[in-house]
Amino acid sequence: MTHKAPEDVTILIVEDNFNNFLLMTRLLAYLGVQKCEWKASGWQVLEFAETLGEIDLVLMDLMLPDADGYQSLDALRSHERFREVPIIAVTANVSPSNVERARKAGFNGFIGKPLDPDRFPEQVRRALQGEEVWEPQ
Q1: What is d(CA 70, CA 7) in angstroms, rounded to the nearest whole number?
Q2: pLDDT tens digits, residue range 32-63?
Q3: pLDDT above 90 covers what percent of the chain?
Q4: DSSP assigned state of 21
Q5: Which residues are CB-contacts of 84 (< 8 A; sequence separation ≥ 6)?
Q6: For residue 86, how far is the Cα from the chain centroid?
Q7: Cα–chain-centroid distance for residue 16?
Q8: Order of strands across the sheet with 109-112?
Q9: Reduced 3-state DSSP string for the chain
């Protein structure tokens, strides 16, 4: 698996809270990521993703309007193009049962909210390198 430099990646953020999206893009900018796409709900996430070209990472809120993060994960995984793309759950529901559910559902990691500004860029860097990142706290 070849790893791109952060400035060459595209990250899709599926997040219904605009302030959370802005925070993520600011923190990703520290990492050098320049291309963040935003989808505010799980509704038709696959159709949206197909319009973007190559996606290197998806950061997925689990509590989304219209279709939750699990439904959105299933939709993306059902498509050949997104089967191997790392998809990380990013959510405030950090209960052990929710983390376990995300693991069983096929997420590649779990980052708890509120995001830790000191850790988030490093968590994403590791995910972009193909590591699983399971850090709910």
Answers
A1: 29
A2: 999 999 999 999 999 999 999 899 999 999 99
A3: 91
A4: H
A5: none
A6: 8
A7: 13
A8: 35-39, 10-14, 57-60, 87-91, 109-112, 133-135
A9: CCCCCHHHCEEEEECCCHHHHHHHHHHHHHHCCCEEEEECCCCCHHHHHHCCCCCCEEEECCCCCCCCHHHHHHHHHCCHHHCCCCEEEEECCCCHHHHHHHHHHCCCEEEECCCCCCCHHHHHHHHHCCCCEEECC
Q: What pTM does this model have?
A: 0.95
Residue 92's region, left for phi above 0, alpha for psi from -120 to 50, else beta, is alpha
Name the one residue in this structure whose structure tokens are 């191997």. 84
- Report the amino acid identity of residue 95: S
Report whether pLDDT(2) > 60.
no
- Name the residue with tokens 């959105």: 72
The tokens describing 48, both together, are: 């949206």
